[in-house]
Amino acid sequence: MSKNHYQILIVGGGTGGIAVAARLRNASESLDIGLIEPSSKHYYQPLWTLVGGGVFAKEISERNEEDYIPAGVDWLQDKVASFQPEEKALTLASGQKIGYDYLVVSAGMQLNWEKVPGLRESIGKYNVCSNYSYETVDSTWDLVKNFKGGTALFTQPGTPIKCGGAPQKALYMTEDYFRSKSRVRAKTKMVFCSGLAGIFGVPKYKIALEKVLKRKEITDTHFRNELIEVRGPEQEAVFKHLDTGVEQVIKYDLLHATPPMSAPDFIKASPLVDAAQFVDINKHTMQHVKYPEIFALGDCTNAPTARTGAAIRKQAPVLVENLLALMQNRQLKAAYNGYSSCPLVTGYGSLILAEFDYDSKPVESFPFDQSQERFSMYMLKAYGLPQMYWNGMMRGQL
């Protein structure tokens, strides 16, 4: 049985929760911190694009959770059942009620496979795959390497998802494999259906990615079209146009599906959310708009930027600085500008590194045009960023 009260309680032991816990411990070893996380494993999810492309085995994306919970932080291996913010408390699935002085929420997103009838039961058979979970990512590579030609279909929901660039990364990687490795590109139709209005929301990178599509001869793109059903045995995918309501059926020989996503159910059912059911925060200070002792970061919040680990890397230090300021009755001066990054893999050995802010303006880290495809940026994603994540960010150093 854990304690029934903590000075700081953190919900979620993923990227955001661990980054915040590590930064808080680095700031002061006297802080009394509890961290709630049911999973015994921690995943570096950005690598799954390359796992699905056969570059890496999925096992290198997995670590033991206990190895990254900072020393001195109590790990409560349980789930949150409900929040009682008026009481500054929450209740665990075990029934235990825990109070806090300050709460940090970083619960990530959940994959809602069941929102698309036929999707969950078709994954791994009926030629359906997805890079979006540790359990399903192997199915992508199995299908890609054995594909003999036909229609290869890739989908993206119109609602927020984690790593919004990942569905098109799978498209580009697969196209490159068919063209340069398995040599089946000439007898393959590549189709991309997205609920979004265009290939990318930031104009500079949108132009660059439209050139990628043209070069790869991927002309069969359907925007504002959302996957609403998978008929596995028939190998048919049903789409609905989000503006007109018109439905269409596309027969496929390979379907890479991105499931709809949302904040976790226990977040959606809480008093912490806005009308869209994401944790309602000030997008600059990361403080909850109603409950000043609550802060949140990452995918479960309503911060209007791309949901990526790169965004969390910039949110975590702002949140920690403002939380410590609040604890010391100081003004909250740290501000997050909406920075996010999408390392857009365009093939084996090529990548566009998109970096941008709340205003969809590029905020680039390197002294060159990052909308150009580069081998150096691919190597950064494949080898540099994972090391920065495990050894820097998860230790509160980056």
Brief summary of the model shown:
The chain is α/β, with parallel strands linked by helices and 398 residues long. The protein has helices at 15-27, 48-52, 119-122, 137-146, 166-180, 203-215, 265-268, 309-327, 375-391; strands at 5-11, 33-36, 41-43, 62-64, 74-76, 80-84, 89-92, 97-105, 110-111, 128-129, 150-156, 188-194, 220-223, 225-231, 236-241, 247-251, 254-256, 261-262, 294-296, 340-347, 350-356.
Structural summary, described in words:
With 398 residues, the protein is an alpha/beta fold. It has two domains: 5-109 and 263-337 and 390-395, FAD/NAD(P)-binding domain; 112-261, FAD/NAD(P)-binding domain (3-Layer(bba) Sandwich). Helices cover 25% and strands 25% of the residues. The chain has nine helices and 21 strands. It has helices at residues 15-27, 48-52, 119-122, 137-146, 166-180, 203-215, 265-268, 309-327, 375-391, and strands spanning 5-11, 33-36, 41-43, 62-64, 74-76, 80-84, 89-92, 97-105, 110-111, 128-129, 150-156, 188-194, 220-223, 225-231, 236-241, 247-251, 254-256, 261-262, 294-296, 340-347, 350-356. The strands form six sheets. Strands 1, 2, 5, 6, 7, 8 and 19 form a seven-stranded mixed β-sheet that branches. A five-stranded parallel β-sheet has the order 10-17-11-12-13. The chain has a three-stranded antiparallel β-sheet with strand order 14-15-16, with no helix packed on it. The radius of gyration is 21 Å and the shape is globular. The model has no long low-confidence stretch (mean pLDDT 97).
